[in-house]
Structures are given as C-alpha cells and as structure tokens.
Design goal:
The protein is α/β, with parallel strands linked by helices. The protein has 9 helices and 8 strands. The protein has helices spanning 4-21, 40-48, 59-68, 88-94, 104-113, 143-152, 171-191, 207-212, 222-225; strands spanning 30-34, 53-56, 76-79, 97-101, 121-127, 156-163, 198-200, 217-220. α4 packs across α5. The longest helix has 21 residues, at 171-191. The structure holds pyridoxal-5'-phosphate.
C-alpha cells in the first residue's frame, strides 16, 4: 500500500499534466485535499509535503482535527459538506472557506457569527448544475440574487462557484455540466471582478475533464488519503 505522501505526489503530478494538456498554467488550479473521515496524522503527512488547503464535510470530525493541528498557522480549512442553518457557528468560527452556500439565511447567520478579528469567510455558492431534485445548491437563475446578498455582507467574501454534478460515467454529460458552470462563473466574474476567482469542480474521477473546462480548484479525497469507510460519520450529529 502506498503512503499518503506518495499518493499526494501522484495526484499533484496528474494535476500538472492535466494543466499542460489543457494549455493552462500549472499554478492556475488549486488542489483541495479532502481529508473528511481521515485522521489528523494523515493531514499532517500531507501538510509536510507542502499541501495547505484541506476540505472537510463533517463538523465534529473537522473540529477535532482543526484543534489538533492548531499550531499550523498557515493551514486552510474549507467546509464542503451540506450545512444546516443551526450549525453555522463552528463554520464561522473555525473555517477559512465555505464552499456549499445555498441560501440567504445561512449567509446572514455566518456573517453575524464571524468573529471580528478573523478575515471575512470566503464563500462559494453551490450550484445544482444537473437540476436534480434531491441535490443541494441553487439553480443557475438564482445565483445573482444570492451573490448580491453575500457581496453585501462584511463578514463574507464572494469567491465563486462550486458544483457536484450527477454521478455519470459519460464524459460528454460531465463536460456539458462543467462547460455550463464555466459560463455561469465567467458571468459572475464580470459582476464581481475584484473578488470572484474560484471555480471549484472536479473530484478524483473527473479531475482532468474539469480542468479542461476551466476549473480553478479540484477537490481530491480518495486518491490522496485512500478509500473511506462505507459508513461515514452521521451528518445529523448535534453541535451548536
Ligand atoms: C468527498 C468529497 C470530495 C472528494 O471525493 P473523492 O471521490 O474522494 O475524491 C469532493 N468534493 C466533495 C463535496 C466531497 O464531499
């Protein structure tokens, strides 16, 4: 079995190659290492190889790691899981980014709860790009209204868009989703040129395709940290 460090270097090599293949600069795509359900020791191993941005989905699991790694002052935590409105406080107090904003109420709560001595929380609006009934995220038509709310709140900074397309093995379908996202993101950038610079799309299975369609951040878990246990921590855990 390969180590986290070895996996990490394989992923960064693939990322570089995907940039080259798309005629893009190597540093134009950020790697978010998705460490959900994995121990702080594996985050530390990845950090030691130079990785700084980590993605987490489950609050309690994340807070344990954030506390354990508190001494790493340049580490950057991204919350990428579904967020209920009664769970916003720990995100406001402990994270640098929220990538899954999908409603105004959550934006307003995060703004109120963001400590004044912290930099504004960087926010991506999650887009339900496949129009699936059960998926979280806003529909494309609702992006401008939510973006305007985020932009008006001093505790938040609007950074861009994020999506999780439907699971599909058809590259043409995925390419169409990524292409739509790129267009929505370009439009948003014209409205907020000073802050919007991030388009988060692409995971372990579709990283190269997402990069070919303009992704500026890929979120990679399994290929760095290994497969996760089938049963992940309960997302409905109570935490205030
Ligand atoms: C788990 C997760 C990932 C990483 O998925 P892998 O298939 O393990 O690379 C990326 N984005 C989100 C939102 C996730 O929840």
């Amino acid at each position: 079995m390969s180590t986290t460090a070895e996996n990490y270097h394989k992923v960064t090599a693939r990322l570089r190659q995907a940039c080259l293949d798309s005629g893009r600069a190597e540093n134009s795509v950020r790697l978010l290492a998705v460490s959900k359900t994995k121990p702080a020791s594996q985050v530390l191993e990845c950090y030691a190889e130079g990785q700084r941005a980590f993605g987490e989905n489950y609050l309690q699991d994340a807070l344990d790691k954030i506390t354990a790694l508190d001494h790493l002052t340049d580490i950057e935590w991204h919350f990428i899981g579904p967020l209920q409105s009664n769970k916003t406080r720990p995100v406001a107090e402990h994270f640098h980014w929220l990538e899954t904003l999908d409603r105004e109420k959550i934006a307003r709560r995060l703004n109120e709860q963001r400590p004044s001595d912290m930099a504004p929380l960087k926010v991506l609006i999650q887009v339900n790009i496949s129009g699936e009934a059960q998926k979280s995220g806003v529909l494309p038509d609702d992006i401008p209204a939510l973006a305007a709310v985020v932009d008006s709140l001093p505790g938040l900074t609007l950074k861009g868009l994020m999506c999780i397309p439907e699971a599909s093995s058809d590259d043409d379908v995925l390419a169409e989703r990524f292409n739509s996202m790129q267009q929505l993101w370009q439009t948003l950038r014209l409205s907020y040129p000073g802050s919007v610079d991030t388009l988060s799309m692409g995971m372990s299975a579709d990283m190269a395709l997402a990069i070919a369609h303009g992704s500026t951040e890929v979120r990679i878990g399994t290929d760095i940290f290994g497969a996760r246990a089938v049963r992940e921590p309960d997302t409905k855990e109570t935490h205030s």
